[in-house]
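hey so i finally got around to running the thing on that chain from the lab meeting. sorry it took forever, my laptop kept dying and i had to restart like 3 times. anyway pasting the input first so we r on the same page abt which one it is
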Amino acid sequence: MVKVFIDPGHGGIDSGATGNGLTEKNVTLQIALAVRKYLREYKDVSIKMSRTANKTVTLQQRTNAANNWGADLFLSIHINAGGGTGFEQ
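ok and heres what got predicted. didnt touch it at all, straight out
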């Protein structure tokens, strides 16, 4: 069983980047919920999320939850607005 911890970046009082009528915390949550839905199609994948609604979760709370659960993969989703291309690791 592979344990995937999905972290939609920001949330609650932390909006993340904003622009063009979009707020990062909302977009990351939509993406994270779609990823969870997709991964649920696999039998050998267990999924937990740092948040499933617009709430404040500290970085420490997110990483503690993933580590305490024994996650194999921590996927933190962000929509950065500072420029650049590609993805970050």
